[in-house]
Amino acid sequence: MLTILILTGLACGTLLAAVGFILWNCLRLVPGLSHAVQVLGWLAGTLLLLGALLAWLGHHNLSPYAPPLILMAALAAPPQAHHRRDAHWGNALFILPALALAVVGLFWITDHAGSGVGNPTITLAKLAVVICGGFGARALGGALGDMAASIPHVEWPSAATYTLLTLWVGSVTLVSLWQRGSVWGGTAGESALAAVWLAWSAAWVSPHYAPRLRAALTAVAALCLIVLATGYPMSDV
Amino acid sequence: MDQTSRDPWRTIWHIATSDYLMTVVVLGIAAGLAITLWLPQMPGAAPVAYARWLSEVQARFKSATPTIQMLGLFTVTRSLGFRALLALLAGCLLLRLTESSHQLRQYRQLAEPAGAWRALADAHLPAVMDTLHRRHYRVLSAPPLFQADRWPWADLFPILTQGGALLFLAGLLVTHLWGWQVAGLIAQSGEQVTLPGTDEWVALNGEACRATHSSSIVTHVEQCGPGVRASATNSTGQALPLQQTASSAPVAQLTVPLTEDQFFAIPEAQLIIRLASQPGHAIHAHSPVLVQVYRSPPGRLTAETVVEREAELTVGDVTLKLTSTPYARLTATFNPGLWPTGAGLVLLGMGMLGSVVWPVRRLWLRQETEQLEGTGDLLPTPAWGREA
Question: Which of A69, A75, B48, B377 is the most buried (most CB within 10 A)?
């Protein structure tokens, strides 16, 4: 557990340093600082990924919330392509979801609520939703940047999240239809998944000519997805 | 132009097919589902489940319970508002499907450009055409006007999405109107259970804890547990009648599922038999069963054994034969909308994924003297130069 704590702590520090560098770069343009931010982003992502793998695969007495949070932070931490372009304080918003997830994960590591490792089926289902949540966190960063600082962002994290979520929700529903003869098994996990998918669909069908609305809906859907992915051990899909 | 904009039907059509309305409706349905996560929903007709639900919500929400109930928040998915949203969604989808089908035909040929023209600085027509071809755009030309799009696939995916969603909703409606579900059905190995009020049947293969059933229903095994088939004979080999309750008819052979502790009597031998799951063992189809025999009167424990597969227990001149007969708690569903729902789901998924990968993008270019102008869904600026 100490190793996971150290890795996550280091990643939090690295992400904080990246935020600091972005803000410093806005005040006085320092050549090469944006490259340093990128390196820090990748470094934090690697540290968090190692921490998440150790937390998930090892039998540590961790809170069940910690591994999904750290894995989502690991997927959200690597920098997005636009970071190279300009020195703008809004670029820090792209890192904010990863930093928040890592800090909350760090907090939960020390909470001994029992192991999060369940039976393989539940773990696989959880992993699928957590990966969606990680991409969702990247999309959240882009949406925050768009809303707060009008920074144009790449669409792929949002598209990837929606694609994965659609595949997962579709598979779960088809399996339920095949096995039970009904679309919903009536579990809370299925309802939550459907609600998040619908929220993301609403963001996806929202008008392209209203980017702020689209970004706001994406942010709401991403937050719901992150909450769902974090609490997924309790769900029973 | 004025006449067109004042036409109320056209206005209604624009509103009904707008992205805003679709967003609001989908968000409304998502919100409805989200509410069901926080507020326990009232169960259907089962009185025991209703009583349990009522005590739970009264303990949780206290004096706010009647208000929440009055607002219909305990019956969200059965409420008129939620169903109206689904109906509105179906209506919007139908109109969008009509519009998308029309657009598929309309954009087969060069169409009227939409939106304001913008000058594209540093962009040259041959280079732009090259970029468009590399990105798999189809280019229609009537110089000086050019139309670029990804017809027909990009225009086909929204049709798949809308058609799939409509089929899915139609399947759900058929299920709701003509489908039924029986939950908590108990079936034991080797017996065939006929569902109440129907000709449908369910049988259980006890070894694998798998159900077989008539072709028009789907069954799902919720839980498997042990059960016992019991018979008793006296010293002459004559079968002794067994009785589970005072009012039940005596039978030579009794099959008992161990959903809880079970008792039966052998009145002629004045014996009471208790069957229970062996403590400390996980419950599964062939988990051991504790059998205790009491003499009545005085109600003293006379013999006990543990049944794993088969066992014989002799008490005085009575021989009790016990065979493991697993039971399963099943849910049986008759879903006439199964195929439309499944097909709709597949089409919906294909359409949505296709739209994500291959979205509808349509742009027009025109060469005015030396200046290239564009309108519609123009590509990002670096793709062909700088916009003026």
Answer: A69
In 3D space, the residue among A144, A91, A159 whose CA is nearest the CA of residue B358 turns out to be: A159
Chain B residues with beta carbon closer than 8 angstroms to that of A173: 345
Q: Is B118:B125 a contact under the CB 8 Å cutoff?
A: no
Which of B345, B348, B363 to probe the A interface (max A CBs under 10 A)?
A: B345
State how far Cα B164 lies from the chain centre. Answer: 16
* Mutation to test the B interface, candidates A135, A198, A220, most B Cβ within 10 Å: A198
Asked whether the beta carbons of residue A179 and residue B218 sit closer than 8 angstroms, the reply is yes
Q: Which residues of A touch B218 (CB under 8 A)?
A: 179-181
CB contact set of B192 (below 8 Å; sequence gap of 6+): B201, B202, B203
pLDDT tens-digit map of B46-105: 788 889 999 999 999 988 999 998 888 999 988 999 999 999 999 999 999 999 999 999
A94-106 tens-digit pLDDT: 899 999 999 999 8
The continuous run of DSSP H or E covering A1 comes out as none
Q: Is there a contact between A110 and A62 (Cβ–Cβ < 8 Å)?
A: no
What average pLDDT does this structure show over B193-201? 89
> Would you give the DSSP letter of residue B190?
T
Q: Answer whether B292's CB lies under 8 Å from B173's CB.
A: no
Q: Give the pLDDT band (50/70/90) at residue B206.
A: low
Q: Which of B43-78 are b and which e, b meaning 16 or more Cβ less than 10 Å from the residue's Cβ?
A: eeeeeeeeeebbeebeeebeeeeeeebeeebbebee
A123-139 burial: b if 16+ Cβ within 10 Å, else e: bebbbbbbbbbbbbbbb
Which residue is closest to A191 within chain B, CA to CA?
B33
ipTM of this model? Answer: 0.87
